[in-house]
Fold:
Amino acid sequence: MLESGFRSRVLERSADGETVVISHHGTFAEMRQLADSLEINDRTDLGFLKSLRLRQESPNLWCCECRYESDRGGGYANAPDTAYGKKSATLHGSVRTLPLAGHPAYRMCWDHQLIAAPGVSAVPSWWATATTEAIASESDRLNYRWQKPGDTPPRTAAGSWSILKTPTKPGTETYDWATYTITERARFRSDRAAGRMIAGKLNQIGKPVTTFGITGGSWKCDDAGVSWNGRCWVATLSWSRSSGDDGWDADLYPAEVTP
Structure:
């Protein structure tokens, strides 16, 4: 900020907060130097710098008008930085189709039929609660088995095994699960600079610039892109939160490498 020169101040107050406009006056060189030293969205004692403009008031007198904004309590909204190369983010929900066996409450009886040895007709107590194909009791292993619908029960010397219980969710192999998706965006002056932001990120476990207070699980990059919006190059990265708090499987997806 310039220490010399005339400055005027205008204060505006509305239901949304306060706006302070500081007008600095001096030569064109002084005002241009001031404008070049300021960054839009910088946080100051007056609020966030939201805009500035230079205007000529007389042949030798120029004005640099700086507009600062703060909320009703005198604080500052957590506005994203829109400078080149600075990331901002949006949050939304998306639906993923997942294997039924991966459901947190999965039961074998949902998509498997229980078969019994010849002469066995009693339904075991664990039929409705079993979560894996393993049968704990040795005697039960001799009398019961899980198998997929459509498979033919085995035949032994004592006779054929029979279908004791059919699946409770026949034909269901997947389920829909809504999760959070965060999309990061940043502006760049060149296509190469935008490409560097997204390079090597797809399928990697990492962390977006903000998670909007969402905790647990982990994030994986599922989409990336670079486009020209008519004024600058825009790079985007989309991150999906894991369906469970255990996070994405690190054996299947590599961790993001920080350059």
About this structure: The chain has a mean pLDDT of 90.
